[in-house]
Fold:
Amino acid sequence: MSSSARDSDPEHNESEQSSVTAGCSREGTVPAGVSRRTYRTVSVLLAISALFFAVSALMLMCAEEPVGWEDREYTEGNLTINSGLHSEYITMVSAGGEPELEYTGPGSDVEWLSTDLSDTDMIAVGDHYEFREATRSYDNTISFQEPGEYEVVLFVDGSVVAAGRAVVDGEIQDKYEWSRFVDGDYVHYGITFTYMFEEYQRYAEESAVRHAQSGMSDGRFAVVDDAIMRLADALADEYEAVYGPDAQRNGQDYADYLLSFVQFAIQYPIELEYEGGEFVPVSGGNGDLYLYGTEEYWAYPMETLYHRMGDCEDTSFLLASLYSASGYTSSTIRVSGHMVVGVELDLFEPDGFYANHLRVSDVTLDGTHLWLCETSYDQYVPVGLLNIKSDLEASDIRQYAFVAPVVTTKGAASA
Structure:
């Protein structure tokens, strides 16, 4: 089984992160029903479109089963390939070590091209950014070192022999360390969140409208699944380890704690603009371009956790899902060009230190009093404090979507 451990790296995050702003206004959209996988695959295939007539003809001759328009999957251990890579001349190797594809057919000059579809769409090249290119391997065998989804093209003696996708499932361990300033002292926390690559991939492949859409609730992205429940349990365990087993996990401080995790665990993406024929980092630019290669992309919580990056909508969906998994009633609240989260609390007392610099912010929606949370800050700011106007008028809100509480296995009570 493949496994990948990833630690939080504050210095790395800080060096790559552009200036974070509270706004995240974008006008571009992803076409309805097009998943990120489809978007990225189109980009890869366009680069080699002239070669795919040869691939189609070859697959009809070499596939062990008729392909037609049906795309089939073949699995060996934790390695899965689709019809485009399935051939009598390609052997899947998954037992022990890294999963591999081995070419055993005729020819002497073998070259593999692979593109990691689960990585960011863009990569830094000097002082600008470019779309990620395929890596090359000049061997009969190609190995996959990390869990992921890969677009693979095989050349033999200069001709395309096969092209398709390979998916390597495996365990991913993400370690998080963060702190928050409470009552005059810094309190430090740390958790490990373990999940399978498939728990991310199922959302990355989902055909969904990835932007605001009339008639659709924004809350459809605030998903609480088994992985989010495990994350909520890990956060609960750490809170009890710091404050004791009798610590209350249904009030303002725990809501602050969950918010602090999102603020520190998820970095704002590199903000890019297209200037002078290049994508360059610009404060106030577009973060979705860097992550997903398109101007607007609303991510599910597991996508945001996998990349450890997201803009205001992405982190709002993540926080709302964690609040739900921890027993709170919350709501995503979309205003022009921005999104925040509101959380219902029985009691609220503004933190004096932060209240001196920011504004106490709340709103009542459908009779429910909500305290507003800003998820896209790059530092800890407690619940109920924003740097925008303290009282939202009904005319400011484009849409709000309540997210109902769910009791976790740790038994968190509803707020």
